[in-house]
Amino acid sequence: MLVLPASVQVEAAWDAEAGAWVATSDDVPGLVAHHADYAALIALVNELVPILLVENGLIAPGGPPRDLLVHMAAHVLTRSTARLAARR
């Protein structure tokens, strides 16, 4: 019998070159989603997670609807330059 996990962890990182957020997860094999808008990425991930859990045999298809917590952590790395005043 397959047991629904209590939650899944998703990591999202900003890809400056692509101009989009990219989400992946060790808990959800095959999850790779990207979108320029973070809120839209969350919605996309919430659609893909149940599909991928079934396709990977981690949960059984069908059955009554249930909620699954999706914890998404976002990481942004920025680089900028601050001009320091010369000391006198």
Mean pLDDT: 88
CATH class: Alpha Beta
Shape: elongated
The number of helical runs is 1
Sheet with the most strands?
4 strands, mixed
Tally of distinct domains? 1
Measured on Cα atoms, how large is the radius of gyration? 18 Å
Work out the strand percent.
25-35%
| Order of helix and strand elements from N to C terminus | EEEHE
How many beta-strand segments? 4
> From the helix content, strand content and strand pairing, which structural class follows?
alpha+beta
CATH homologous group name: TTHA1013-like
Structure description:
The chain is an alpha+beta fold. Helix content is 20%, strand content 28%. The protein has one domain: TTHA1013-like (TTHA1013/TTHA0281-like). It contains one helix and four strands, in the order E-E-E-H-E. It has a four-stranded mixed sheet with strand order 3-2-1-4, with helices on one face. Strand 2 and strand 3 (32-35) form a beta hairpin. It is elongated. It starts with 6 loop residues before the first strand and ends in a 13-residue tail after the last strand.
